[in-house]
Amino acid sequence: MRNVRRWIVPVIAALATGVAAGGVRIDIDRETLSRIVSSVATIEVEVPIAGGTTLRVELRDVRVTGLEPATPERPGDGIRTAVRVLAPDIGLDAAITPRLSLELASVDGVPVLELRFDELPLAVPLLGRIDLARLVTPLRYPAQNVLTLPSGTREVDLVSRLSKVRMTRDALSLEFDVRATP
Known about the structure:
It is a single chain. By secondary structure, the chain is mainly beta. The protein has one domain (2-181). The chain has two helices and 13 strands; from the N terminus they run H-E-H-E-E-E-E-E-E-E-E-E-E-E-E. The chain has helices spanning 2-17, 30-40; strands at 20-29, 44-48, 54-68, 78-87, 92-96, 99-107, 110-117, 121-124, 128-131, 139-142, 144-151, 154-167, 171-181. Strands 2, 3, 4, 5, 6, 7 and 10 form a seven-stranded antiparallel β-sheet that branches. A four-stranded antiparallel β-sheet has the order 1-13-12-11. Strands 8-9 form a two-stranded antiparallel sheet. Strand 2 and strand 3 form a beta hairpin. The protein is elongated and about 70 Å long.
């Protein structure tokens, strides 16, 4: 009970004065990140070709093979992936290893975590080399969230905002600022 008093009293005091704040860090290892990326990756892309027609290209079996922290030579954290690319209409089935970039961005003033292909090169018979990266819509996730919690006599807004993304060769760390306001 004594240990509970050490943290519960400051939390209650902070809520009583109007604001409580703190930080949360989530570490995601490469295997877990691989499962996340494979479940949210774009599956189909339409590639424009001559005469206004398109070529349907499918991205399958997306998995993370490595994490690439930013360096002076290559700014921006990256995620190395392995992707199976299919173009059923022309019988293409190829394995490629494109790089994804991960960064905090702002879209229309709203903070987002953006994941996009830097490169997605594909050699297509008769068409040559095509970089599909510009055709794949970046994945964007809100970097701020407000959750309203009922608390007896009033509601408390719990606001979390992604403040920092850190990458090592072993894990991706997401750091959040969290505050509660009555």
